[in-house]
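Below is a filled-in request sheet from our internal design queue. Each sheet records the structural input a requester submitted and the sequence that came back. We keep these sheets so that new team members can see what a complete request looks like end to end.

REQUESTER: design group, bay 2
PRIORITY: normal
MODE: inverse folding
CHAIN LENGTH: 277
BACKBONE (tokenized):
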């Protein structure tokens, strides 16, 4: 059984609904939901775990080029190479709204038999935290680990079945800036409303959490200008796993995932940890 690292992340206890889509701590966003969401201040009650839901309305502000680009890229690259491995290449973003999100590729090695993708650029802007005192959590970057044979190339990415992990890194990374909200440990993001499966998998969303694949020191970067960037991994979930989180608790879901060593290393064919048998 693996033990999830404790990076002093804030446990979240509310669910957000985005333009008819549900997010969770809970958060919900549609897979194809592009720039254009803001948060209203009229929460509704959610059954089960009694988590408040916040409705999101279409964002009035149009596509906006980033004011800052690659603000912390060099520091993030140095941090990743110190704690995770040598960066092979950077998947540069050609068109950006609000923030310019590049993806760093750390290839598989004999000791680390998986490829690691880490974003750089989500942290260029601060997130809208729920209350004062959480400024140490207002900048994040995201990551996911892929099997060593997962195809990564311009040609391969023309196939959504290969590209979707990169798409989700960028989508979730842009989400808090589009919606004037925040993301952190324990947030779950479903794929649309009604919920749809992701690409050629049976997953219907993801949860954000740290990973046991990397050292504790990796998950928190103190920048030269005194800010803090926290790193969270994307763990794809089946609908029954999403429901367990929403209707019971984050702790209940994490216990199931930990029991079976489910982590940020993508396994598209893994067993559903809460499916009925």
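RETURNED SEQUENCE:
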């Amino acid at each position: 059984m693996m033990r999830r690292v404790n990076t002093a992340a804030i446990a979240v206890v509310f669910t957000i609904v985005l333009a008819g889509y549900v997010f969770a701590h809970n958060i919900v966003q549609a897979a194809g939901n592009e720039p254009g969401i803001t948060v209203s201040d009229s929460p509704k009650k959610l059954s089960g775990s009694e988590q408040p839901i916040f409705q999101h309305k279409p964002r009035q502000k149009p596509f906006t080029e980033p004011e800052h680009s690659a603000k912390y890229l060099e520091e993030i690259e140095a941090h990743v190479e110190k704690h995770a491995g040598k960066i092979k290449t950077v998947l540069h973003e050609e068109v950006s709204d609000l923030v310019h999100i590049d993806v760093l590729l750390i290839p598989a090695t004999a000791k680390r038999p998986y490829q690691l993708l880490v974003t750089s650029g989500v942290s260029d802007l601060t997130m809208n935290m729920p209350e004062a005192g959480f400024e140490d959590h207002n900048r994040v970057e995201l990551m996911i680990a892929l099997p060593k044979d997962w195809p990564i190339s311009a040609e391969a990415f023309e196939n959504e079945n290969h590209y979707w992990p990169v798409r989700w890194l960028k989508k979730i990374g842009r989400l808090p800036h589009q919606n004037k909200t925040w993301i952190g440990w324990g947030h779950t993001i479903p794929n649309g409303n009604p919920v749809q499966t992701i690409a050629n998998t049976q997953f219907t969303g993801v949860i954000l959490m740290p990973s046991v694949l990397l050292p504790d020191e990796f998950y928190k970067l103190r920048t030269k200008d005194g800010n803090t960037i926290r790193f969270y991994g994307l763990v794809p979930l089946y609908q029954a796993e999403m429901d367990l989180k929403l209707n019971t608790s984050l702790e209940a879901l994490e216990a199931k995932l930990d029991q079976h060593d489910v982590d940020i290393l993508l396994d598209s064919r893994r067993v559903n940890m809460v499916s009925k048998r």
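SHEET NOTES:
- The mean pLDDT is 82.
- The longest strand covers residues 228-237.
FILED BY: M.R.
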